[in-house]
Amino acid sequence: MEKVIGIDLGTFNSCVAVLENQTPVVIANRGGYKVTPSMVAITEAGKRLVGHIAKRQAVTNAENTVYAAKRLIGRKFDSAQVKNSMATCPYRIVDGPHDDCRIQLRDKVYSIPEISAMVLQEMKVISEDYLGHEIQKAVVTVPAYFNDGQRQATKDAGAIAGLDVIRIINEPTAAALAYGFGKQIDRTVAVYDLGGGTFDISILEISSEGVFKVISTAGDTFLGGEDFDQRIIDWLVQGFKEEHSTDLRQDRMALQRLKDAAEKAKCELSGVTETEVNLPFIISSTRNEALHLQRLLTRAQLEELTDDLVARTVQICEMTLEEAGLDKDEIEDVIMVGGMTRMPRVQAAVSEFFEREPCKGVHPDEVVGLGAAIQGSALVDDSIDMVLLDVTPHTLGIMVVGEYFEELIPQNSTVPTSRSKEFTTVKDNQTAVKIIVFQGESRRAKENELLGEFILTGLRRAPAGEVTVDVTFEINADGIVSVFAKDLDTGKEQSITVTASSGLTEDELDQMVEEAREFAVARRTDEGMEEAKQQAETLIAEIEKLFPEVEQVVAGSDFGRDAITKARSVVDATRELMERGDAAGLKEQIDALSRTHRMFKGVVGKAG
Amino acid sequence: MGEVEESRVPRLKEGANFTSLPLEPADGYILSQIDGRMALSEIGLVTGLGEERVRELVTKLEGHGVIEWIGADDGAAAPSHEPPSRRSGKRPPVETLPPDAYPKSERATPLGAKSRKPTKAAKAAKAAKAAKPAEAKAEEPKPSEPKVPGEPYTLSELEAAGADLGPERRKAILRAFYTMDELTLYEVLGVGPDDEKKAIRTAYFKLSKQFHPDTMYGKDLGAFKAKMVAVFKRLTEAYEVLGKKKRRAEYDAYIGLRLKTLRAEQRLEKGKAKAEEVAKERESVLPPAMEASPEIPAAPAIPSAPVASAAPSSTPSSTPSRPPSPRSSAPTRPSVRPSQRPSAPSTSEAARDTKRRLMARKLAAAAGRKLPGQRRSVPPGSRSSKAPPGASSRPPVDRSQVIRGLATSLKMSAVHTGGVDMAQRYVAQAKRDEEAGDLVSAANYLRLATALAPEREDVSAYHDRVAQELAVDLADTYRGQAAYEEKNGKWADAALSWGKVCDGRPNDPEAHWKAAYGLLKASGDLSRAKQYAQRAVDLDGSSFDAKKTLGLIFHGAGMPESARRLLEEAKALDPRDEMVENLLRELT
């Protein structure tokens, strides 16, 4: 049976899992971590870094380190969300060729799916290392509230990474799968998922027959842990400004440090009631004095700062319950997912609202990945007796006269589903109708997301209203939307399978898949020398720095000249090995490099 | 509803004494019809009272100990007819409601299970619809191909490509696919109307595991995939409604209303048919037959069943309103010339055909056995009048003409002199029904009375008044029905229901514009829609909705000038409506 991995592609962290002997397990990365930061960086040398290594160098390479790319995926460049990210992110977001947004890292512009693909590829490699064979299929999770474009872009990212994404499922749904899988329970549960970037709430029914049915799902793609961080940052910046009349926002480096400190403080306050934010030498004053940031933040203060955010999540919960036609007391368990649910205030608000203690049995960071792995296996493996009845998260419809949005498939419809409606022409002798497909909840078509359009031609010439066109929407179990239009007089048919624009054309996608494949090959041979290279680069940098001083100290002595020449040759040889990509040679060379480094330091130390 | 009554038929107990019982005319009427052959449903059909009322009455009679139950096939002339019915059961109920009109009390078989009887024959249209977007289309069976015996599908469908499906699964999919549309939502899930949510959920989930396409992910399903999807959608529809308290209550209320209006309509329909028949019968025996001699034998082609069946005079009733027996009212208009009888109406409906066949059978049966009534105080005339030996087939010429002549004359006398008297009795019954709140029954009795005595203007006025009251009463039920239909996007149904509301409340502007709007939404008859909307505008010139609807209809009908005029008037009434605003912009 072919293995299908489950990937939780998170805003800030990603996680990969697989089903082994009917039990889902999370696969740790080489560093032993079960989650991998969804971060990608390009070093000065043009090297691609993904995961922890990218995160570690983020402070010094902020402009070329991408985080939270998920917030941008499938979004238009001129959307409010992208503008918002542009204002807060240190990396450069640029206008893409198809109204999409792209990211410029050093001298290359990357599409968002390409960035996500780097993370997915990392997850693929992690699982392949663990399983010892190649992996081709994956189930990837997305926030429940992702629209078709965002889902499509996520699928594209999978394709670029060399993965066949056989199903996209919603994060809260995946969490519920992990919670209920193999448990033989009949329960109606709510999944409260407050992650780094998004908030989702889903109501599901779990049955002992192994059926999971999503009843209702809702959320906010721009409400997550980062917003909590931002509140802390604002508070710190404001306080600093009052104290020193200096705006920390002007300094990108300072901002990055603030971000890290805010996140750290937030996490700490889940365990303790107060914490100190201590950032020495954060900025220089106008008089070139070094300024330090040092402030005490209490849990109560944090709760006050973020009170409205928590309230908003509760409000969305309430709406979702109403949508599901359920009373609070019909919810038999509440599953908490996402790192933010560790915050005591969030837990309190949730238990207060649902009038019950949330379930403690799941690991908020891993549960989504586990669920994805379960769904992946359930699809391909007949021995797994489970079926997921998922819903469509957004209303689908077409634009009708007056630019109205005429709903065809309402949100939260269980898929597969289909609906038909009849429409008529609006003008005399109209021989064609344009079917413009939208997705969203606004009555005005244009406020919704455009999914696609096509024209049904060759209609009979007749007075307005006489020609009837039957429009059918269909969503299959894979969530693929198809639209059929039929002229009821002539029987003429037109249809499209709506492939929401992910911001990439098919050609572009092919090219990226190709590039990534080459990269993957290069990468595999590279694998062993990744660390060595990093190490070598660091050593060379240090040695080069010491050269002038050493030259000064040893000048005049033959020994000194010899030593310097030797050191130069060692460095040059190392560079050559690095360029050749000779991992074994480089590893040996590092010894020599280290010796040189130690010697240089010794020389300088003696002199000093 | 006892199982016994479904499969058995009532018979009068031998030797039972009726005279001492406190019976009412309706009881007697039913008693006269019980012949040990007809099931309750058939008696309901013959009498026009409907199965339910008959059941009530029979239960009462049973309580008096004069009824016993026998197996349906015990009698000599077992029923072999098949009244038009959607179900193919041996004894279909008279109330042939569309199956989704009400929940069955008994637990239905889940979708796809074998026991469900194949129902409608050709469903090519439906199959095509379900398969529209899917690959199934190319493999639709030719309409001419016969079905697999006992199943709703053809062999080529069963054996169509879909290599990864076993034969049982294939059968289950096809069975479910071809039966699901006719079932109530309860039946779709195989649950009872009183089942709790948990049972409904379990049923849905179990079936989902059978029909959700993910259960066969990546498998070769051929045309079965589209069918699985179609079945799953229907299951989901049922669960979405029945699984939610509010929607289920709405659905229950809705089918309750539908049942009420449907039953009322059907009872009225039967009452009408019966009244028409009575009127026809009456015409056929009246003046033109005057010159006929009693010696000429009556033609048996059309048994005089309706007359006899409408005559409670044959009952052993002890009520004072008991009509004079035909024997005491000697034939004043002795006979009829058969050749002048109108031939059987060519437009006879299936129901009436059935009735005839029933009567014929009944007569044959009556001729062949001793009537229990003969031993009691039942006037023999009424019985014998409709049961001349061999009445249901061409009588042998050598039969005693005297006997036949007598029978005929007795019958005619019952028709005529009894007729007027009967009319009076029906009016009395109608009054009682009206007081009891059963307007349908009252209207039916009055219609009968009118048919029997068309010259009585007071009767027809009374009929018109009750009919109007009934229409108003039904209108309110239809209003509730329409509201549900509108809410659930069943515009064609909503338009029909609103149309019914308009019948009862011809001065209700809302009902009219809503009927029009329903037609518009359902892409129905625009000229009819226009009439409704125009009427609504006439009734209430200040109704924004009426004017907007009429405007939309004009627009839809390609009459931009009229549309603009109406929409402008609508806009004057409510300038905030965006749709009107936009349409106007487009029209100018």
Give a description of the structure.
The complex is a heterodimer of chains A (608) and B (588). With 608 residues, chain A is an alpha+beta fold. Chain A has 4 domains: 4-223 and 312-389, 2-Layer Sandwich (Nucleotidyltransferase, domain 5), CATH 3.30.420.40; 225-307, ATPase, substrate binding domain, subdomain 4 (Actin, Chain A, domain 4), CATH 3.90.640; 394-498, Sandwich (Substrate Binding Domain Of DNAk, Chain A, domain 1); 528-607, no CATH class. Chain A contains 15 helices and 29 strands. In chain A, strands 1, 2, 3, 4, 11 and 12 form a 6-stranded mixed beta sheet that branches. A 5-stranded mixed beta sheet of chain A has the order 18-13-14-15-19, with helices on both faces. Chain A is globular, with a radius of gyration of 28 Å. Chain B is flat and about 75 Å long. Chain B folds into 4 domains: 3-71; 99-243, no CATH class; 285-340 and 355-469, no CATH class; 482-587, Tetratricopeptide repeat domain (Serine Threonine Protein Phosphatase 5, Tetratricopeptide repeat, Alpha Horseshoe). By secondary structure, chain B is mostly helical. Chain B has helices at 3-7, 25-33, 40-47, 50-63, 124-131, 155-158, 167-179, 185-189, 197-211, 224-242, 245-285, 305-309, 350-368, 372-375, 380-386, 401-436, 439-452, 457-487, 491-504, 509-521, 526-539, 544-556, 560-573, 578-587; strands at residues 8-12, 67-71. Chain B is 57% helix and 2% strand. Chain B contains 24 helices and 2 strands. Chains A and B meet through α11, β19, β24 and β27 of A and α9, α10, α11 and α24 of B.
